[in-house]
Design brief:
The complex is a heterotrimer of chains A (about 250), B (about 70) and C (about 350).
Chain A (H helix, E strand, L loop, with lengths): L1 E4 L17 H15 L6 E5 L14 E4 L5 H11 L4 E7 H7 L1 H9 L5 E6 L2 E2 L5 E2 L18 H4 L5 H6 L4 E8 L3 H19 L4 E7 L3 H4 L3 H15 L3 E5 L3
Helix pairs in contact in A: 1-7, 2-4, 3-4
Chain B lengths: L2 E5 L9 H5 L5 E7 L5 E5 L10 H5 L5 E5 L4
Antiparallel strand pairs in B: 1-4, 2-3
Chain C lengths: L1 E5 H11 L4 E4 L6 H13 L3 E4 L3 H13 L4 E5 L1 H17 L3 E7 L15 H5 L10 E3 L4 H18 L2 E7 H5 L1 E5 L25 E2 L6 H21 L3 E4 L6 E4 L2 H16 L4 E6 L1 E3 L3 H8 L4 E6 L5 H9 L4 E6 L8 H20 L1
The chains are: A alpha/beta (about 250), B alpha+beta (about 70), C alpha/beta (about 350).
Chain lengths: ~250, ~70, ~350
């Protein structure tokens, strides 16, 4: 028999620290697969965030820098401008990208920086214990919205793809999910496309990934995957939000 | 047998995504604990695995290797 | 050949000649001439200039450029430097070189745009969170700004640590003749830590998160040992007429120049006043002050703040000598005549108390 699936080469042997059923792990693997398949290991540089995704450098067998919370797009800008021949992507969570790092993300996108942002949206601050994120949906219970997120007090979930779509510097923005097989296949295609936009120097690219966080959603892993379909995608519709000719 | 999988049970965290999405019901939760303290999943060799790799696609821990092709 | 330039512009030209290829900055007075100079100059050498969306973004772009292997700098003034402290802490923790120029203005808060020296403690104590130090260079003329820029980049790379060039609004905006003839790119240091893509080698990670407390402690001690080496090797200062002095002024930057004017007048009246001018504020030239204290009983700290440098002078003296102080915070620039009057009063009082 032929081996049809095995561990991607760009993923170290290290065991993931993520909780059972965490979408981060799936996104990490997809990125490693894409790096392998597009033959980018030699040139890829990853910028890791603060938050659950911060330990990606323990997993990716590519050059990786850990950035301060929210500053991924600014750091990636510095790297990419010095090394335009490298593939530079930042890996960021919702708090990182859409709260503390909004300015850096927005302006990197506006300048059309030739970087790719992998934006893992799980609607909570995972590493700090499940507080409200900018993408927490209305009525979602978190440790800092114990009665559910109320828009009059805590605002509304931020749709970053749509926010960035109005900027002329962005060339590819897609929202995907990693909650079922077909969605994962689509997520991988989106990452490939985003990298192609960077390699073709078309503009700023971002893939927003709706990702289960069973631990902080206080759900079982399967239930969390269903919740993405039933609730999260109502606030965050899947699909290509913006694509200019590549 | 059209295919089979190998599960690195030390990586498994028992999230059961593979069980949920296996079209052949060829994976089941076992009562074995790994070193991390999770009940891990087992491959059911008697079921009709065809090596479709959906389990590996879903597995967050990259704990599954998939084999497919002629008879064993 | 000498050119008439502002300190801000001279800093930019010297940085470029010293091999700086990346500048990231955000407008704030009194350092805008540097950002504007770099906007023109950096493209000429094919480098990277970005007017960032914030000071925070600028320092993080510096971090990115530095980890990619380039000589990178940013500049700002007080309020903007406060915003940069996050990134400076990360640069120190990641052991990445960078040069940060602060043309200090009156503070705290928004303060004003007049020259001040009120960021001394922020600069010399690290400034951000955690156990770290930045090397701090304090020029006192436009020429010295130009002279110190290559050193700033060299020290940053030699020790893989952020270096702060601490000027003030006066140094930044006044124009003086300045020569760049002697300014070249300094030494080349091995860069086996930068991120280039993992072609043909193991992948690298640059990080400051160390969950393991033992690892974090060892990292802190490693930094600490590095700071000890810097303290041993990189102290720089100027002495001025201290051989026969009965009183020594300790002042840096613009204050030191004002003090020189005051000392010239004092000497005309045969008051034996000299000066020690720290060029590195950290590492602080404590030894020369200790040495001087063996002969000289009185030290006169003069700074454009309510009293920050005086802490280091007191620490250096370890209780010896008598410390006098004159400070003008808030953006006031004292005149040499004003300082001359104050020092002469202190001088005579000290003389009287020695006799009695």
């Amino acid at each position: 028999m032929k081996k049809v699936y095995s561990r991607p080469r760009s993923l170290k042997e290290t065991h993931f620290h993520y909780c059972p059923g965490c979408g981060h792990a799936i996104v990490n693997r997809l990125l490693a697969e894409v790096v392998d398949e597009m033959d980018l290991r030699d040139t890829a540089i990853c910028v890791a965030p603060a938050g659950c995704g911060m330990l990606v450098y323990n997993y990716f067998d590519i050059d990786t820098l850990e950035s301060a919370h929210g500053r991924g797009a600014a750091v990636a800008t510095g790297i990419k401008r010095v090394r335009p021949e490298n593939l530079v992507f930042s890996y960021q969570g919702d708090g990182d990208l859409a709260a503390i790092g909004t300015a850096e993300s927005f302006h990197a996108a506006n300048r059309g920086e030739l970087i790719t942002v992998i934006f893992v949206n799980n609607g909570v601050y995972g590493m700090t214990g499940g507080q409200m994120a900018p993408t927490t949906v209305i009525d979602q219970v978190t440790t800092t919205t114990p009665g559910g997120r109320a828009s009059d007090q805590a605002g509304h979930p931020v749709r970053m793809c749509e926010v960035l779509a109005v900027l002329d510097g962005t060339s590819y923005l897609e929202r995907v999910a990693v909650n079922k097989p077909a969605a994962i296949v689509a997520a991988k295609k989106a990452i490939i496309k985003a990298f192609q936009h960077q390699l073709n120097r078309t503009g700023f690219s971002m893939v927003e990934v709706l990702s289960p966080c069973p631990t902080n959603w206080k759900m079982g892993p399967i239930e969390a995957c269903k919740w993405i379909d039933d609730v999260m995608t109502k606030h965050f519709p899947l699909g290509v939000v913006k694509e200019v000719k590549c | 047998m059209k295919g089979y999988i190998e599960i690195d049970q030390e990586r498994c965290k028992g999230c059961s995504f593979c069980i949920e999405y296996c079209p052949k019901n060829a994976i089941a939760l076992s009562n074995k604990l790994n070193l991390k303290g999770y009940f891990v999943v087992d491959f059911q060799a008697d079921k009709d695995c065809n090596g479709c790799a959906v389990c590996a696609l879903m597995c967050p821990e990259v704990a599954i290797e998939v084999y497919r092709g002629g008879s064993n | 050949m000498k050119r008439l330039m502002s300190g801000n512009a001279a800093a930019g030209e010297a940085a470029v000649l010293a091999g700086c290829t990346c500048y990231f900055g955000y407008p704030i007075t009194p350092q805008n001439e540097l950002t504007e100079y770099m906007a023109k100059r950096i493209p000429e050498i094919g480098g990277v200039f970005i007017q960032s969306e914030s000071e925070i973004a600028a320092i993080n772009m510096v971090l990115g450029a530095s980890v990619a292997g380039a000589r990178a700098m940013t500049s700002s003034s007080g309020p903007g430097i406060s915003l940069k402290q996050e990134g400076i802490s990360y640069l120190a923790a990641d052991e990445l070189p960078a040069v940060i120029l602060n043309m200090v203005r009156g503070g705290p808060g928004m303060g004003n745009i007049s020259p001040a020296q009120s960021d001394y403690l922020q600069a010399t104590r690290g400034g951000g969170h955690g156990d770290y130090r930045t090397i701090v260079l304090a020029p006192s003329s436009v020429q010295e700004i130009a002279d110190l820029m290559p050193l700033a980049f060299d020290l940053a790379e030699k020790y893989r640590n952020p270096v702060v060039v601490l000027g003030d609004g006066m140094l930044g905006q006044m124009m003086e003749p300045v020569s760049f003839d002697h300014i070249t790119r300094g030494e080349t240091y091995p860069k086996d830590y930068i991120l280039t893509g993992a072609k043909g080698r193991a992948s690298r990670m640059v990080r400051s998160l160390l969950f393991d407390v033992k690892e974090e402690e060892e990292h802190n001690w490693k930094l600490s040992r590095k700071y000890q080496r810097i303290e041993q090797n990189e102290v720089r200062y100027e002495t001025y007429l201290i051989e026969d002095a009965k009183m020594v002024v300790v002042a840096y930057g613009t204050s030191a120049r004002i003090a020189k004017g005051a000392i010239a007048r004092l000497r005309q009246e045969n008051l034996k006043v000299g000066m020690i001018r720290p060029v590195t504020l950290w590492p602080f030239p404590a030894k020369i002050i200790q040495e001087a204290a063996k002969q000289i009983p009185d030290f006169f700290v003069f700074e454009m703040s309510a009293g920050q440098l005086i802490e280091d002078v007191r620490l250096a003296l370890e209780g010896k000598g008598h410390v006098h102080f004159y400070g003008r915070p808030g953006g006031i620039i004292p005149t040499p005549v004003e300082l001359y009057r104050i020092i002469s009063r202190h001088y005579y009082q000290a003389e009287r108390s020695r006799k009695s």
